[in-house]
Amino acid sequence: MKIKAAGIDIGNATTEVAAGIFEDGNLIACESGIAATTGLKGTAENLEGIFTALEEAAAKLGMKPEDFDELRINEAAPVIGDFAMETITETVITDSTMIGHNPDTPGGEGLGLGTTVRIDEAKGKGPFVVIADEKIRFSKAAELINGYMALGTEITGAILKNDDGVLVSNRLDRKIPIVDEVREVERIPLGMKCAVEVAPKGKRIKVLANPYGIADMFDLTAEETEASIQIAKALIGNRSAVVIKTPEGNIKEHKIPAGQLVFVTENQSLKTDVDKGAAQIMGTAEKAREILDIQGTRGTNVGGMLEGIREDMAGRVGRDSSSIQIRDIFAVDTLVPKAVRGAMASEYSMEKAVGIAAMVKSDHLMMKEIADRLEKALGVRTIIGGVEGIMAAGGALTTPGTKAPVVTLDIGAGSTDACYIAENGETRIAHLAGAGNMVTMLIKSELGLEGTEIAENIKKYPLAKVETPYHIRHENGDVEFFEKAFDSSMFAKIVLVTPDGFVPVETRHTLEKIREVRINIKKKVLTSNVLRTLRKISLTGNITEFRQVILVGGTALDFEAGDMLTEILLEYGIVSGRANVRRIEGPRNAVATGLLLGGLRP
Amino acid sequence: MRKPAVEIVKYIERDISEIVYGIEEEGIPSEQVDKSCVSEAMQTYVRVAVYVDEILVFFDKYSLEKPYIRYSTGDSLRKIGANCARLIKGSPLL
């Protein structure tokens, strides 16, 4: 007799269906369906996405969703994951002391030291650094400076509001360093000692990016020199910079209290300071082993994020937020560009930060509700089919060339799941926070991007640069020519190579920088999270006990992450590769297939 | 010897020094040439043709016949100049 069944996997990002017809226990036909998950995973809002995916798979079998004999949905631990960034340091300039931006075209070159003065008021011997607002045209500025020099007044540098540095420089009798495009030129204090440095083309400033260079310029004491590292730090890599010393001027790196994380276990509470960094946080988390709940200090970003997901989940299950437990977090060290407080040309400084992803599991009641509603709507018996990790393994093992003992690693958008299957069918599973979404958030913050969508696209697609109207150079160096010219708005732009064409990335970063950040973040997140997930399911705590790892889930589809993982795991002597579920699905549809097949059949 | 840079051709009488300044600020040499000296084959990387109602930018890597960018007379001349230089530098346009 024939049985028509479907496995339904509701993921954080996609809902997948594997629909099949069994005859006398043998699968004789099987098709897949896929749709975007509607609403948050594990909530009644998912039904819409389920119907879409189910209809697609059913139609391929010439059926309707109502025609199934049985539906099996994953006993998903509905996961609410979120991500927060806690900045640990910030640079504060109490009173204006520095300008360190990178105009495209500063003028002249060299290093000049002088007293700040308005360009039309330089009287006396000098040396002066002259300051011009937007009302002074470049020809007037050059005329004034040449006039002062002719009268014996020493002019050592210039700071301009307009983008005129080269134009002024080209009209001077003697070259001086000129920094232009300083937006808040009015805020520069007058009558103060000031150093201006412009590096030759292709070079970076040397003196003002070095604390001892700054000390030498301004006769600083040893203590003041130490504080000036904050100026130097913010100026490293620039082609031009200005540093002004005011009597009360001060600059310091300020440590922001980032609060604590508390890991509650059966018999103890382990605390760690967030500002100690990711290694210490994750060390404490692993020490705690079976975590019952995680709490964060109120008033901090991480504390707020943890409370936020607790309340979110509480609202969805209609319970008190104090009864919702956060079972896992994953922390990564990062650097984020932050505006320097008190700066004059929107300078930023790379500040230390910790990114933390957290995860909360709800109870099975929610899945029961989805199952009940589905059953009611379609009139088809619906059961909760088994633990997600084990189901994924069941699907992954349909990949040619695989057999137990093996680990299935499912890196999705919100969580990382691992399932070990021994030869005798015994399983060990882990379900941990931190996956694809975290990579997106880190790309967004490290590159200082405005939106999440662009960060997501940078994660997903390789880069290229439009070099001429007719050709692009891909990030691996390959050149591709086109019959039709690129519009001038695309000229010299960095673009993402997407299936829908080239999408420009609006940024001042170079292609190399974006690529480096993307690759480093993927490696950082994947390596540390995969290794800790494997440690969690290992009996010995030593992951070399595993021989094979099959990769499934969204991250395995990433254009480079799969290969990165293969390389990382090879260092531990572990063979790994992407699954090819049912020989056709690639790393997709593993859980749905596992559900359809009724779980594990080692 | 071919001239490296931007050639500016005026087909009308108009003060276009701001275009020249825009190119100069970007650090690229430019030259104004008489319209009678313009040859069909481009002798320069970029040619800017200034007409009554529009300013056309020809780029040798695009086409000798068709302009790569069309500006209206209302556009900032300084920006047009900067963009001509940026075509040569391979920098994104403003």
Could you describe the 3D structure shown?
The complex is a heterodimer of chains A (602) and B (94). By secondary structure, chain A is an alpha+beta fold. In chain A, 28% of the residues lie in helices and 31% in strands. Chain A has 15 helices and 30 strands. Chain A has a 7-stranded mixed sheet. In chain A, strands 3-2-1-4-20 form a 5-stranded mixed sheet. In chain A, strands 23-22-21-29-30 form a 5-stranded mixed sheet, sandwiched between helices. In chain A, helix 2 (138-150) links the parallel strand 9 and strand 10. In chain A, helix 10 (388-396) crosses helix 15, helix 11 packs antiparallel against helix 13 (511-537) and helix 13 crosses helix 14 (561-570). The two termini of chain A are 25 Å apart. The model of chain A has no long low-confidence stretch (mean pLDDT 87). With 94 residues, chain B is of the alpha/beta class. Chain B contains 2 helices and 5 strands, in the order E-H-E-E-E-E-H. A 5-stranded mixed sheet of chain B has the order 2-1-3-4-5. In chain B, helix 1 packs parallel to helix 2. The model of chain B has no long low-confidence stretch (mean pLDDT 88). Classes of the chains: A alpha+beta (602), B alpha/beta (94). The interface between A and B is medium-sized, with 19 and 17 residues.
Give the topology:
The complex is a heterodimer of chains A (about 600) and B (about 90).
Chain A: E1 2-10, E2 14-23, E3 26-36, H1 47-60, E4 70-73, E5 79-87, E6 89-94, E7 98-99, E8 110-118, E9 128-132, H2 138-150, E10 155-160, H3 165-170, E11 178-179, E12 193-198, H4 211-218, H5 222-227, H6 229-235, E13 240-245, E14 250-255, E15 260-264, E16 269-273, H7 278-288, E17 293-296, H8 301-317, E18 326-339, E19 348-361, H9 365-378, E20 381-384, H10 388-396, E21 406-411, E22 415-421, E23 427-433, H11 436-446, H12 452-460, E24 463-468, E25 471-474, E26 479-481, E27 494-498, E28 501-504, H13 511-537, E29 548-552, H14 561-570, E30 575-578, H15 590-596
Parallel strand pairs in A: 1-4, 4-20, 8-9, 9-10, 10-11, 21-29, 29-30
Antiparallel strand pairs in A: 1-2, 2-3, 5-19, 6-14, 7-13, 8-12, 12-13, 15-16, 15-17, 18-19, 21-22, 22-23, 24-25, 24-27, 25-26, 27-28
Helix pairs in contact in A: 10-15, 11-12, 11-13, 13-14
Chain B: E1 6-10, H1 17-25, E2 30-33, E3 46-50, E4 54-59, E5 69-72, H2 77-89
Parallel strand pairs in B: 1-2, 1-3
Antiparallel strand pairs in B: 3-4, 4-5
Helix pairs in contact in B: 1-2
